[in-house]
């Protein structure tokens, strides 16, 4: 089954997406998400200028060999750009393989291990009461798991809080917006948010929170301990994870479950975190962690250490990634939860899909492949618009983690 064409489709239906489309001599095509928020053109060029010329003529059925060819063959291994490119090739080839067998992708991954996929939504508010209202809205929509992010008294802005439109999209046109951060203000405030949420919603609702890499390990230990009375489903990205051993310090101080990994692009980014059981959920996902093939490796390794999956699913991961991830989620044994931020209606029109949400869970659908398509004519109406994620500085101007 020779590959006869491969092209990179860049579009911006509300935000930028990069999609790889691979076509075989049989006329089958597969799609892979290659979106790297704020650095989209780097991946588009890596694919168009370096990968696509080598794809033509290769056998689309040889998913594993193609993965190894583009991983080992690059010499310069790993990194977000390389691994997002390999991910797009991998996901597109799995899509083609499943279509050629006229079967939904999850059937090739071992079949369904559950009837549906538990997801969590993003509730946010400018203050505690605003956040309570947002959580209530999500609960009313059927979510059984809800992430809560709130504005912090004294800070003009913070991560995860929409600017008023209700839809949170962090990347902004032109230069990166500069936010100001105070860990002290955050650490004092955050327990009051979850005390209020538990008082309002009781003990059953799964509550999640994203620290977004902003604390030191000991500060994360303090926050984790302060949140223990509210038994969160997880505290996410408590501290930057380049130094994986940092999480030993957090683990010594708190039993609040920890989720990490949306920025990881290979198993080596989380090998120690998993092996030493320093985390409870691994957030790596299809588009950033080398595709379905590599994500399965990470999940299978994590299973040995009772670490569950919690794939990233923000709006800067396209519906193509969402669809592929849901097939993975439906099948993988040590599934934990899937993040689900619904895309805008214009994005959903560009990327028609079979997946669906109902009553707090999702299903990828039973279309052959991963069940997501692209309307190229419509995509062409939304040209790329340079956009950047914000940067974060401490109040004295020191650069911090966003
Ligand atoms: C966040 C993301 O969803 C999350 O957990 O960490 O929204 C993240 O900020 C964006 O994906 C960055 O592009
Ligand atoms: Mg996150």
List the total number of helices. 13
Strand content: 15-25%
**What's the CATH topology label of the largest domain?**
TIM Barrel
User: In the CATH hierarchy, what is the architecture of the largest domain at level 2?
Assistant: Alpha-Beta Barrel
Number of domains: 2
Major sheet characteristics: 10 strands, mixed
**What is the helix content?**
25-40%
Give descriptors for this structure.
alpha/beta, Enolase-like, domain 1, TIM Barrel, 2 domains, three-stranded antiparallel sheet, binds D-mannonic acid, binds magnesium ion
Could you outline the blueprint of secondary structure elements for this entry?
Layout (H helix, E strand, L loop, with lengths): L2 E9 L5 E8 L4 E5 L6 H16 L7 H10 L7 H21 L4 H4 L8 E9 L2 H13 L4 E6 L21 E2 L4 E4 L1 H19 L4 E5 L6 H11 L6 E3 L9 H8 L4 E3 L10 H5 L5 E2 L8 H14 L3 E2 L9 H13 L6 E2 L5 H6 L5 E3 L2 E3 L12 H4 L7 E2 L2 E4 L4 E2 L2
Parallel strand pairs: 4-5, 4-13, 5-8, 7-17, 8-9, 9-10, 10-11, 11-12
Antiparallel strand pairs: 1-2, 2-3, 4-15, 6-16, 14-15, 17-18
Helix pairs in contact: 1-3, 2-3, 3-10, 5-6, 6-7, 7-8
């Amino acid at each position: 089954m020779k590959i006869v064409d491969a092209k990179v489709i860049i579009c911006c239906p509300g935000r930028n997406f990069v999609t790889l489309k691979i076509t075989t001599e049989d006329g089958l095509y597969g799609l892979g998400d290659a979106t790297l928020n704020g650095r989209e053109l780097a991946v588009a060029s890596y694919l168009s200028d370096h990968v696509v010329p080598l794809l033509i003529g290769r056998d689309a059925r040889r998913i594993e060999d193609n993965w190894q060819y583009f991983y080992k063959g690059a010499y310069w291994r790993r990194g977000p750009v390389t691994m997002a490119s390999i991910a797009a090739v991998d996901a597109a080839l799995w899509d083609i393989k499943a279509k050629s067998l006229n079967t939904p992708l999850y059937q090739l991954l071992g079949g369904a291990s559950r009837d549906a996929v538990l997801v969590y939504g993003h509730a946010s508010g400018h203050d505690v009461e605003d956040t309570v209202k947002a959580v209530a809205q999500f609960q009313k929509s059927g979510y059984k798991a809800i992430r809560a992010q709130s504005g912090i008294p004294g800070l003009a802005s913070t991560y995860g809080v929409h600017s008023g439109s209700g839809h949170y999209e962090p990347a902004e046109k032109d230069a990166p917006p500069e936010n100001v951060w105070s860990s002290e203000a955050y650490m004092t405030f955050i327990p009051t948010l979850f005390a209020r949420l538990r008082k309002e919603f009781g003990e059953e609702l799964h509550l999640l929170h994203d620290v977004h890499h902003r604390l030191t390990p000991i500060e994360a230990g303090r926050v984790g301990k302060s949140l223990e009375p509210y038994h969160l489903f997880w505290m996410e990205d408590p501290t930057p994870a380049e130094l994986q051993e940092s999480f030993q310090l957090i683990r010594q101080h708190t039993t609040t479950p920890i989720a990490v990994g949306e920025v990881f692009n290979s198993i080596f980014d989380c090998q120690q975190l998993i092996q030493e059981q320093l985390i409870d959920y691994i957030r790596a996902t299809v588009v950033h962690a080398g595709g379905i093939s590599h994500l399965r490796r990470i999940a299978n390794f994590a299973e040995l250490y009772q670490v569950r999956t919690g794939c990233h699913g923000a709006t800067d991961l396209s519906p193509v990634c969402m669809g592929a991830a849901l097939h993975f989620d439906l099948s993988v044994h040590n599934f934990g939860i899937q993040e689900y931020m619904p895309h805008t209606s214009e994005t959903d029109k560009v990327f028609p899909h079979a997946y669906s949400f109902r009553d707090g869970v999702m299903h990828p659908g039973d279309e052959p492949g991963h069940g997501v398509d692209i309307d190229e004519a419509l995509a062409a109406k939304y040209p790329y618009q340079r956009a950047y994620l914000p940067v974060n500085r401490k109040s004295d101007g020191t650069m911090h983690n966003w």
